[in-house]
Structure prediction request, 136 residues.
Amino acid sequence: MKTVKFAAKFENLDDIREFVGKIARRGGFSDKDIYNIQLATDEAASNIIEHAYRNMPGKTLELSCDMQGDVITVILTDYGESFDPSEVPVPDLKADLSDRKIGGLGIFLMRKLMDDIHYRPGPNQSNVLTMTKRKR
Prediction:
């Protein structure tokens, strides 16, 4: 498992996408799946920066990524405000835009793009989000 720490800043999202993209590419994922893995990771990291850390300076997020057989695992760890994505209801995509509740689209997208997403509280009051995708 390769792990890198990134400053929790939006300007690091390109590096975060590149990090998981390289591992997915080496693992033999299709271009479409690589893009989906990068997009899901980007969304998760953005949520950490914006919500868990509320754009506070000096915070970091830890990103681990690994291939085991035909499955890529992406793990994001932060030490911000906890948030369990399983508690977010599926957004009503058929509702008129003016009637839709704000939020939840990013989690919906992560669920659609990856095979599994799982949140758990970690050690030292950390939050651990694990996402997996199987090569097709």
About this structure: The beta strands are 2-7, 60-68, 71-78, 116-122, 126-134. The helical segments are 13-26, 31-52, 105-113. DSSP finds three helices and five strands in the chain. The chain has a mean pLDDT of 88.
